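G.,

No rush on this.
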Amino acid sequence: MTTILVTGGTGTLGRLVTERLRADGHEVRVLSRHSRPYAVDLREGGPGLDTALTGVDTVVHCASTPRGGDEKAAAQLIAAARKAGVRHLVYISIVGVDRVPFGYYRAKLAVERLVADSGLGWTVLRATQFHDLVLQVLEALARVPVLVLPAGVSDQPVEVAEVAGRLAELAAGAPAGRVADMAGPEVRTFESLARAYLKASGKRRRVVNLPLFGAAYRGFRAGGHLAPERAVGKGTFEEYLAARARGAR
């Protein structure tokens, strides 16, 4: 079995990727800013990153933040991976990064390009939004009596554990370039997802759909972040909410 480094290995996705890889018998190192012995800020790089990559065959790059710095972090990681002789770099991206002019998406697309031009063997998987993210957004919006939603926007959320399983599978294989997107089983209006959340949580909120402005909103409204032809995910949003209610998460 191979030695695999998972960046962002304590996060929502990275933790599950790590668990799956270890269950499959791989030696896995977890890299994050606070996870010892490989506590590294990727934006800074340095000797700690070199140490983490020593003897590593494959890197699964899950570390990411909408607060900025992804491109710098990826550049540091790639340079150190080349120096360490890493064979395979696997990157998780987002469906629609090349179609929706949203700041975070632009950064993810830029990292995809860095990965493809890295000189390393590489694989990129794009996935739709996780159920967890949709829930976080809805919980934030429901803090006030009126739940205001972006009018005309749909989503296609996917179960994060399914994406983790696919990433682990790709990490164990040969570099494959850009692989087929992975999307959830249903394209849903954001309002239907909101009402499912309200029903599951027992909250009462007035739901209002508000038209927004800007190129990013137009991109989301046009469905640039959806992949109905790649609805390969199995778990629905309602099943996710039910599992949370049972204490499964």
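When you get to it, here's the other one too:
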Amino acid sequence: MTQLLHIDSSVLGPNSVSRQVSAAIVGRFRQIIPGLEVIYRDVAAKPLSHLSRTHVAVAYGAPVEDPAVEADVAAGQAVLEEFLAADIVVIGAPMYNFSIPSQLKAWIDRIAIKGKTFSYGPNGPQGLAGGKRIIVAISRGGHYGADTPMAAFEHLETYLRSVFSFIGVTDLEFVAADGVEIGPEHREQALAKAIQTAGGLAA
């Protein structure tokens, strides 16, 4: 059975473009993959805490004495296990201040774990999370393509490409809705185009 992990990170709820596009992607896979199992995690509605010195200490073997920390460590382990078990990962990722939402960064910090999704060896870092297919639904208020004046401000797609490449993911796709804050017409056109792209994804 194919397992799909669906992550949303927008704080805008039903008004979110990235949520609509990620839902369309998941809907497409439900249509074309028989028996697909979907696990959903909304990291904006139920955010993970950001890393702290305590988290790092626990990772290196320090005892857990605070029940709140114990629960948080358990939540991080659950997130990691969900990611490792997934064959397909669909992520809704809007651009906030030129990069990803902090809630999504907190999730990434729980899956980018030495010895689990990457390792270091004589030849440098090696990704351990290969074999997954990741599709990211991104929404950006403006246009940030390589041929635009704002290209140097793009730290959403570029960051995600870097971090997933680092942990070994080579099957990475982006479905983008750009210019959604330029005006209502641009928003509708960008959303329609992204949903159309989602509807054409192959298994």
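Residues 50 and 164 are 19 Å apart (CA to CA). The helical segments are 17-32, 53-59, 67-85, 102-111, 157-166, 184-199.

Enjoy the weekend,
O.
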